[in-house]
Amino acid sequence: METTNRPFAVVTGASSGIGYELARVFAKNGFDLLITAENDLRTVARELQDAGAQVTTLQADLAQHDEVEKLWKAIQATGRPLEAIAINAGVGVGGGTFAETDLQAELNLIQLNVTSTIHLSKRVVRDMLSRSAGRILFTSSIAGTMPTPYQAVYGASKAFVQSLSQSLRHELKDSGITVTALQPGPTDTNFFHRAGMDDTRLGTEGKYTNNPAEVAQQGFDALMSGEDHVFASSVKTKIEGELGKFMPESLKAKMHEKQAEPKSGT
């Protein structure tokens, strides 16, 4: 990547959904990018280049340790200071109770949503500390604020990401580095289909609550403003996020169960 005066950012999980929209927002706001995903990114890269960004792509499965290292080496190979990163890659598993869902799929979920997030964050934080500057955006979820029956492991993974984000924000408060958690509600992406949740209210109705482009824009704005977190993007999601702070866990669990339980099981 040639050196320019544009700032440099990284977006993981950039092939579709919120990650794709985050990459677009960064590009439109003057950033050059390194984007990564499991899927081919050439079409996405061309779109971002049309918006004026220089773009490096890396096809990688971040659920694998060596692939995270490959990403970090690719970031270093640009020779450019990392001004912002959206650690967004993640996956869900649902469609049944904890006893029914697939163990291997959930272990892979933990590797991607949790382990790779720690791994990449460790590299990023140390690098940014060396320059006393940088912005980190974690894609968490409103699901990280509540019990999530029928998505037990996914919800736990997002609670982990949320706690990590808040802890790092406190540790880094005087360092010149900001940490922001993006907490979307159900969003109109392929997430629920991939998670095996087509037969749920979340997968058929709930996902239309939030638009991925709006989620990404609000996440980017919160990141650039140095905010702690943002519930994105609809008014409904924002209200649910704020009210959830005062609701008993048992009530939140019951509400989520109604949304995530397969219809065929009712």
Q: Mind sketching the topology for me?
A:
Elements: E1 8-12, H1 17-28, E2 32-37, H2 42-50, E3 55-59, H3 65-77, E4 84-87, H4 103-131, E5 134-139, H5 152-171, E6 177-184, H6 191-194, H7 201-204, H8 212-225, E7 229-232, H9 235-243, H10 249-260
Parallel strand pairs: 1-2, 1-4, 2-3, 4-5, 5-6, 6-7
Walk me through this protein's architecture.
The chain has 266 residues and is α/β, with parallel strands linked by helices. It has one domain: NAD(P)-binding Rossmann-like Domain (Rossmann fold), CATH 3.40.50. It has ten helices and seven strands. A seven-stranded parallel sheet has the order 3-2-1-4-5-6-7, with helices on both faces. α4 links the parallel β4 and β5. α1 runs parallel beside α2. The longest helix has 29 residues. It is globular.
Q: Within the largest sheet, what's the order of strands? A: 3-2-1-4-5-6-7
- Helix % is 40-55%
Order of helices and strands: EHEHEHEHEHEHHHEHH
Structure classification: alpha/beta
Task: Spell out the CATH superfamily.
Answer: NAD(P)-binding Rossmann-like Domain
Which architecture name does CATH use?
3-Layer(aba) Sandwich
CA distance, first residue to last residue: 54 Å
Fill in the CATH topology. Rossmann fold
The proportion of strand residues reads: 5-15%
Largest sheet: 7 strands, parallel
Strand element count: 7
Gyration radius, rounded: 18 Å
Number of contiguous helices: 10
Looking at the structure, what is the overall shape? globular
Tell me the domain tally: 1
Mean pLDDT: 93
Poorly predicted regions are none
| The CATH class | Alpha Beta
